[in-house]
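Q: For a teaching session next week I want to show students how multiple molecules come together into a single three-dimensional assembly. I've collected the sequence lines for a complex. Could you give me the predicted structure tokens for the whole thing so I can convert them for display?
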Amino acid sequence: MPPSRPVRAQPIPTSVGIGLRPAHVAHVLHHRPAVPFFELHSENLFCAGGVLWDAFDALRRDYPVSLHGVGLSLGSAEPLDPAHLAALRALVQRAEPALVSEHVCWGAIGGRHYNDLLPLPYTEEALELMVARVGQLQETLGRRVLVENVSSYIHFSHSTLSEWEFLAALAARSGCGLLLDVNNVYVNSVNHGFDAQRFIDGVPAAAVGELHLAGFTRKQGLGGELLIDSHDQRVDAAVWALYGYTLARLGAKPTLIEWDQHLPDFAVLEDEARLATEHLDVVAALAA
Amino acid sequence: MSSPPSLRELQHAFAGAIVDGVAPSLEPWIATRGIAPAARLRIYRNANLAIHVDALATSFPALQHLLGEDCFDGLATRHAAFRGNRSGNLQDYGADFAAFVAAQPETAPWPWLGDVARLEWLRQEVALAADATPADAAALVAALADADHPPRLRPCVRALSCAWAVLDLWRCAQAPEHDAIDPAVPQSVLLWREGSQVAMRAIAPAQAAFVDALRHESSLDLALAAAQLIEAQAPPETLLRPLLEHALLAA
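A: Of course. Below is the structure for the complete assembly, covering every listed component.
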């Protein structure tokens, strides 16, 4: 595993945090809600200063903070963008977040960035590349990172590994941790026709450092059932059930509520966090 | 069936589906499960356009107001499809949108729209710029007397000179009741950050040239010369006044 360096930031507690988006920053700074931790998108802090940095500096005095990247394109067949990697390194050095995470996906090719989390084929070639890229990232940052499974609407038929086998091998070979998005597991299980519990069973519990929860939408009119990872509504009942199964299988893990489109009042996110906390409390009670 | 695509081939084909809407070489390698591969790829194509149109709408709200939502969306969609983003950071997307807007046939009747877009991009630069402590009086006196170490602007300072009433047009987009403006009045604008807000005010063209030269690390003499190309007798104290009034020189 690459060397890690001490991080002065407050550690992420095993409780339920909220993904903080710019539209809620003023509310959070004014009301200082009792949220155990916040997660921000790394790229929102790639700028040198301004209101988001002011907010971040104020936030991290009172809350543990994690950084979640959406634009590095770890799985691109072309080399990582050195400017993006340097910006992330500078950010991590300046911000000293408790956790740093990225995605198991690609988003750029031919010098053009699509700013989306595009799916990989689960092949040995892609795995080898991801292992090398995660190694490069951890080496550059001087710390272990978590990588997140993404939702997808395409499954490549020449894949030779299941998605969970791919994740488990990536964690084992690169030494990275996993950020397991339970909603994405459920979305993919419907979209690609596998048993979501089998996915959870195939994930190495010790590697999982964080869980994500979000809402999806059902896309109609395509001739088959398809779920879109829209992050624009409450967590679905089926995903709550899978979250309960995940906690029972993996143990209690820091969990994050994400909401990115059609942002509701912050109170709605707090309510989702309360529901997730109830699940975590059940696991804690059973463990005790 | 031929052999499966390499990762690089797959990603180039996928990108083709996002940009052009077709990926014949990729479709045989996409599992259908009742949904055609082309329909699955279209989800990514549509998402890509939506992500980039939304990003432009966030960065150019005044332009969107002046153009109307439909016309703006049309331009933004075309830009997203044909230009795209060269960065993994969406904050970088839109740097060339002003030039793109100015060159489109549907904006020809309103030649000032490109300048409104330039102003909005500068507002974004100002909002995201690094922070710096303003210079105090003693540091200012020393810097103004030292030809080798001219005063530096705070990183959040920008200036823009236009052939159109760009500041009035921007304000009109914020408060449409102020619609009795003459767009054909040249205007120069000073932009900076005040607290968490982007501040703007009209300045003289010579002052804008002076600020722009300082921003590009010219010496005080060269910045003065740049200003005096526009206004031959521009006195230094007049050129410096807006910078001193708003504490825009860095320590």
